[in-house]
Amino acid sequence: MLVNGKWTADWHPVQAKDAKGGFVRQTSSFRNWVTPDGSAGPTGEGGFRAEAGRYHLYVALICPWASRTLIARTLKGLESAISLSIVEPALTDQGWRFGEGAGACDAINGATYMHEIYTKADPAFTGRATVPVLWDKERQTIVNNESADIVRMFNSGFGKLANDRFDLYPQDLRASIDALNDMIYPSLNNGVYRAGFATTQEAYEEAFHQVFATLDRLEGLLSDRPFLFGECLTETDIRLFVTLIRFDAAYHGLFKCNLRRIVDYRNLSAYLDRMLDIPGIAGTVRIDHIKKGYYSIKALNPNGIVPVGPDLPFAGKL
């Protein structure tokens, strides 16, 4: 991580633990919002007006949090308005690294590592250099590095630059969306990480059981509807999808979430297929990046061997 703008030690997935030895995720620190008129959003300061070509999105295709924003950018038709850089999948001793070629290099700031973007925005930054990051080319700073905020910005903050095919956070469902998000996040989205990065048996088993209790609950919920809230695809579907698509390839084996696979759940598997059939979503998924990235985590896989399997039934759609 960065301490007062300086990179310290080698990258490690666990930077903080709770009293049980459980994994604690860092809180995002840049929380400004892009709005149609540049007024302040729910957090942060104003001055970030929606403009085509002004903003740049940094993501990793391994990362579910970053993939949320990539999917929202696609569904809202913002690809031409917001440029994109994708870091390499394998984590290095200095965290996320840029590669070469179109889309893989940092053509905006010329950085080699993601942590350089953070110190450009704040030379004294302390914390982890995470993705996603929404960068303002005009003000030369990070707008926001919280995926939940960025998804909502892409949904409504870019005004007429975005299409209205999907409303990912409709007014009449907001309370229900927030409630389901609050259930899925700690027990499943972050639950797989709490299991994989646990440092005690107690913390691991607690997270493990919550993961599968949540999957069982969602399997039942999806028995009579195409999406989590019926016919309407929302941000909660994006949040669930990015975890499900990685589950059998990474979380089942490497993170020891091995009670069942997603392929063993009839309704969740059908749901995954429906999500992949939505134009644009399959293009945000790279199983090779996902496997190479997760299995590059030395704390979990010191020899760096990437498994050949598993055989994924949806692979033909990617």
Overview of the molecule:
The chain is an alpha+beta fold. It folds into two domains: 2-161, Glutaredoxin; 171-279, Glutathione S-transferase Yfyf (Class Pi), Chain A, domain 2 (Up-down Bundle), CATH 1.20.1050. It is 35% helix and 7% strand. The protein has nine helices and six strands, in the order E-E-E-H-E-H-E-E-H-H-H-H-H-H-H. The strands form two sheets. A four-stranded mixed β-sheet has the order 4-3-5-6, sandwiched between helices. A two-stranded antiparallel ribbon has the order 1-2. It is globular. The mean pLDDT is 95.
Architecture of the largest domain, according to CATH? Answer: 3-Layer(aba) Sandwich
What is the CA-CA span between the terminal residues?
A: 34 Å
CATH topology of the largest domain: Glutaredoxin
Question: Can you count the beta strands?
Answer: 6
Task: Indicate the overall shape.
Answer: globular
Number of domains: 2
CATH superfamily of the largest domain: Glutaredoxin
Instruction: Bin the strand percentage.
Output: 5-15%
List low-pLDDT spans.
none
Number of helical elements? 9
Quickly name the level 1 CATH class of the largest domain. Answer: Alpha Beta
Helix content percent band: 25-40%
Integer-rounded radius of gyration: 19 Å
Strand order of the largest sheet: 4-3-5-6
The major sheet is characterized as:
4 strands, mixed
What is the mean pLDDT? 95
Structural class: alpha+beta
| Helix and strand run | EEEHEHEEHHHHHHH
